[in-house]
């Protein structure tokens, strides 16, 4: 027996290890499934090729031929952990690009802590990296317009630390709140509401501010509504010719003037841009033949508004046809000379500017003028020529005294046969007055209408001596 074992030792060892491998393979296969599925042919577990030689095994080739991966039991603890993560973790949604987006933020009022209540500032979110989300201001404030003097609003903190603080101010004054509720009184017009949050994140200080503009417009009553102090049209007025120069002077209930930025003029539903603003605010209207609707909305600086409506009847005529008469005069009363041309009625023609009307008047009177600009644009009278126009001049002494007190410089420039700018005094020149108003626009910017009174006047002191100062610095005596 010993001799047999010794002689066949190699074969016996090979068979032993083959048996071990076969048993191990069978055990592994059995863990996956005890039996093959019905109709399935079991695949061989191993194949042994043995070649017997004189002195033992020449080669041993063991091949595990089962290529099917064995089914492993799931780790129950790991599976439970994954399920819990799915239950508590943020829901993810695929976006169109294939990436993932964090769950949409909850309603901005959710989890907000009122200002001044540190114990309530525990509603803290985490960002995608598991870090604490940045603090936020949560409020119901919006930019806009209100009609009530008292403003009530809410403001609080979201994702704040126990040390977060929120302050509110209205027009620079701090407003105290209670449990996130604030109240403040507004002033008429624009009000600035500012919220300021201070906190820390990752040991770094954070300051956030939000600013809102709330316009308070008091309710308009009959007593507080704007009114027209002057307007040169009346409802149902008939106008010959299609050009009309509209002059308006609206004021608020306290009598303060409302300028062009608070005036909205529409003719037949279309916006009309303002032309000039001087004593009155001026608009050039191009009327249609027949009935025209004129609407003017005036708004004061506090937002109160009033509407004025007029119906105008336009009688259309051909260009060059007479549409009425105006009264024109030229004077140099500040020189003690009286009228250069006494008041004269003169025809106004359809389609012409005031400068064109005046130039025809000058020709008819046998005078000459020098002017800047054209009869269609920026027309300005710089000098009028007439033989002996300054003969016998004598400036009234009270006017001399006021000019001296005003600090204006007297000039030696003066001529016998002409009168113009910078003659006698630094503030001298020609200006015009239409229906008692010294306008800031030129004669080329206006169209005369029937019944207008036009005065061409000489001044020594920028109009202060004839009541034409637009700054309200007229002298005590007006000439």
Q: Could you describe the 3D structure shown?
A:
The chain folds into four domains: 2-64, no CATH class; 113-216, Immunoglobulins (Immunoglobulin-like, Sandwich), CATH 2.60.40; 228-315, Immunoglobulin-like, CATH 2.60.40.1220; 322-459, Ferric Hydroxamate Uptake Protein, Chain A, domain 1 (Beta Complex). It contains five helices and 31 strands. The chain has helices at 2-7, 9-32, 76-88, 354-365, 397-406, and strands at residues 46-53, 56-64, 93-94, 100-101, 113-114, 136-139, 144-146, 150-158, 165-170, 173-175, 177-178, 181-185, 189-201, 204-216, 227-231, 238-240, 243-251, 263-267, 270-271, 274-277, 281-286, 290-299, 305-315, 322-331, 339-349, 368-372, 380-385, 418-420, 429-434, 437-438, 453-459. The strands form eight sheets. Strands 5, 6, 8, 11 and 12 form a five-stranded antiparallel β-sheet that branches. Strands 7-14-13-9-10 form a five-stranded mixed β-sheet, with no helix packed on it. A five-stranded mixed β-sheet has the order 16-23-22-18-19, with no helix packed on it. It is elongated, with a radius of gyration of 49 Å.
Average pLDDT value?
81
Q: What's the CATH first level of the largest domain?
A: Mainly Beta
- Outline the biggest β-sheet: 5 strands, antiparallel
CATH fold type of the largest domain: Ferric Hydroxamate Uptake Protein, Chain A, domain 1
Class computed from helices, strands and strand pairing: mainly beta
**Annotated CATH architecture of the largest domain:** Beta Complex
Report low-confidence residues grouped into runs of 5 or more.
31-124
Q: What is the number of beta strands? A: 31
């Amino acid at each position: 027996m010993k001799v047999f074992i010794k002689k066949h030792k190699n074969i016996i060892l090979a068979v032993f290890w083959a048996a071990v491998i076969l048993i191990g393979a069978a055990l592994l296969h059995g863990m996956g499934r005890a039996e093959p599925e019905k109709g399935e042919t079991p695949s061989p577990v191993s194949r042994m090729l043995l070649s017997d030689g004189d002195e033992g095994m020449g080669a041993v080739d063991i091949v595990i031929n089962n290529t099917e991966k064995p089914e492993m039991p799931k780790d129950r603890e790991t599976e439970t952990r994954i399920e819990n993560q799915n239950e508590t973790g943020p829901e993810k949604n695929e976006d169109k690009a294939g990436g993932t987006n964090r769950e949409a933020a909850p309603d901005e009022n959710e989890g907000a802590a009122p200002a001044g209540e540190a114990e309530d500032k525990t509603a803290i979110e985490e960002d995608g990296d598991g870090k604490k989300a940045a603090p936020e201001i949560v409020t119901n404030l919006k930019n806009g317009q209100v009609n009530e003097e008292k403003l009530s609003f809410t403001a609080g903190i979201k994702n704040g630390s126990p040390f977060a603080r929120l302050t509110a101010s209205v027009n620079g004054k701090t407003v105290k709140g209670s449990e996130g509720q604030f109240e403040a009184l507004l002033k008429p017009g624009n009000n600035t509401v500012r919220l300021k949050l201070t906190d820390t994140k990752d040991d770094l200080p954070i300051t956030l501010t939000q600013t809102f503009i709330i316009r308070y417009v008091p309710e308009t009553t009959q007593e507080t509504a704007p009114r027209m102090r002057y307007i040169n049209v009346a409802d149902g007025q008939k106008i010959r010719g299609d050009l009309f120069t509209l002059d308006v002077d609206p004021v608020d209930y306290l009598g303060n003037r409302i300028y062009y930025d608070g005036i909205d003029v529409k003719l037949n539903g279309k916006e009309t841009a303002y032309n000039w603003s001087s004593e009155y605010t001026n608009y050039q209207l191009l009327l249609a033949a027949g009935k025209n609707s004129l609407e003017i909305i005036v708004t004061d600086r506090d937002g109160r508004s009033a509407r004025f409506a007029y119906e105008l009847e336009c009688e259309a005529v051909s260009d060059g046809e007479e549409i009425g008469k105006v009264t024109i005069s030229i004077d140099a009363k500040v020189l003690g000379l009286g009228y250069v041309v006494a008041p004269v009625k003169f025809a106004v023609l359809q389609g012409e500017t005031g400068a064109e009307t005046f130039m025809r008047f000058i020709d008819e009177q046998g005078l000459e003028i020098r002017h800047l600009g054209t009869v269609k644009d920026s027309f300005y009278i710089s000098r009028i020529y007439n033989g002996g126009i300054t003969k016998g001049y004598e400036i009234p002494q009270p006017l001399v005294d006021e000019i001296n007190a005003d600090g204006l410089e007297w000039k030696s420039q003066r001529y016998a046969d002409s009168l113009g700018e910078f003659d006698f005094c630094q503030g001298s020149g020609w200006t015009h007055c239409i229906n008692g108003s010294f306008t800031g626009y030129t004669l080329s910017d206006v169209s005369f209408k029937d019944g207008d009174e036009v005065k061409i006047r000489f001044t020594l002191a920028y109009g202060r001596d004839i009541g034409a100062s637009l700054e309200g610095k007229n002298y005590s005596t007006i000439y």
